[in-house]
Design brief:
alpha+beta, Endonuclease III, domain 1, Nucleoside Triphosphate Pyrophosphohydrolase, seven-stranded mixed beta sheet, two-stranded antiparallel ribbon, 9 strands, elongated, binds iron/sulfur cluster
Length: 374
């Protein structure tokens, strides 16, 4: 890990404005904050689940998943003791399944080492799988009232504008300055509400494009608005070019069922159910026995960009022959009507939808916050 930039010193004026910012933010939050289910609780588990789901996924998409997930796993212990397949199935359609795997792994640590309660200690919280500075700050400030910042992309953008942080947003210096400002702004009283208010401002008012400065509660404190630099700050982080990957899949159908296998080995899709697939152009690359299935000639193509990979996937619908043994591995014939409840990765969900296998669209945000169909 690269060394962190040294903690920047803040001027007295910056500290004064940071304190003033909090007063205004809390007023805005009380007047205009959305009434969301995870804001009606201080239960650390419920706050934690919401924060995990909201990473890279929009509020409107998370709402039904949140309710269903907590009904299925109402406590940390229930989550820890459940089969991972059941957890992934409950996550099906939200995407970024690593979040669900980490959440359950962390729940198991919480049960084993912390009596089933999210730890109050900063270092213990950070040691949990999938919990970074943002997540720890969010849960500890919201659930336990600890005076800690929680800076997501929305908060980062609003702070950069208010305090004129001009460096590109991914640079160590800009990050360190934003974090120092966030730390200075968080009040002893209502730190969780303050953090949520800042994120809410970024989500609803100080949006990436066309921020609504005219109705903004912190307009009088905002350096970017004063200088007309709202659209220029923050400078976007330079993105590495996505690596192009060409892949091919077989969607093998038999009566009303479709063939899926569990992805083994390491990687983001490990443990998920997938259509048999491989990198390459030709259906042969998938490696199914030639007598197992014959292509019907129907082909669909999807493009999906995730984690710096642009996947061009060509999927061939195939009709299964009767009585042919499946290759080694974990396989299932699943009813097409039940695919929705299966933890398929996003490109395979797209394929299923294009082939009329009845999956509703979901809305996901990629690592840069860009929305795409899941
Ligand atoms: S005044 Fe405009 S740029 Fe500044 S924080 Fe408010 S919405 Fe963002």
């Amino acid at each position: 890990m690269p060394p962190r930039s040294p903690k920047p010193r803040l001027t007295t004026d910056a500290r004064r404005r940071a304190a003033e910012l909090s007063t205004r933010l809390l007023g805005f939050y009380d007047r205009e904050g959305r009434d969301l289910p995870w804001r009606q609780t201080k239960d650390p588990y419920r706050v934690w689940v919401s924060e995990v789901m909201l990473q890279q996924t929009q509020v409107v998409t998370v709402l039904p998943y949140y309710a269903r997930f907590l009904e299925a796993f109402p406590t940390v212990r229930a989550l820890a003791e459940s089969a991972t397949d059941d957890v992934l199935a409950m996550w099906a359609g939200l995407g970024y399944y690593g979040r669900a795997r980490n959440l359950q792994a962390a729940a198991r640590v919480v049960v084993a080492n912390h009596g089933g309660v999210f730890p109050r200690d900063w270092a213990d919280a950070l040691a949990l799988p999938g919990v970074g500075r943002y997540m720890a700050g969010a849960v500890l400030s919201i659930a336990f009232g600890q005076r800690l910042p929680a800076v997501d992309g929305n908060a980062e953008r609003a702070l950069a504008r208010v305090f004129l942080v001009r460096g590109h947003i991914g640079s160590g210096r800009a990050k360190a300055r934003i974090h120092a400002l966030a730390e200075a702004a968080v009040p002893a009283d209502r730190p969780g509400d303050h953090n949520q208010a800042l994120m809410e401002l970024g989500a609803l008012v100080c949006t990436p494009r066309a921020p609504q400065c005219g109705r903004c509660a912190v307009r009088e404190l905002c350096g970017a608005a004063e200088r007309g630099l709202q659209e220029a700050i923050p400078r976007p982080r330079p993105r590495p070019a996505a690596r192009a990957v060409t892949a091919v899949a077989a969607v093998v159908r038999r009566d009303s069922r479709v063939l899926i296998r569990r992805q083994s080995g390491p990687g983001a899709w490990s443990g998920l159910w997938v259509f048999p697939h491989a990198e390459g152009h030709e259906l042969d690359a998938v490696g199914l026995p030639a007598d197992l299935a014959a292509p019907t000639g129907r082909v669909v193509q999807v493009r999906h960009t995730v984690m710096q990979r642009r996947i061009d996937l060509k999927a061939h619908e195939c009709r299964a022959a009767q009585g042919v043994a499946l290759p080694q591995g974990e396989w299932r014939w699943v009813k097409a009507s039940e695919l929705e409840a299966v933890a398929l990765p996003a490109p395979h969900r797209k394929v299923a939808r294009l082939l009329g296998l009845g999956l509703p669209p979901t809305r996901l945000l990629d690592a840069e916050g860009v929305e795409h169909a899941g």
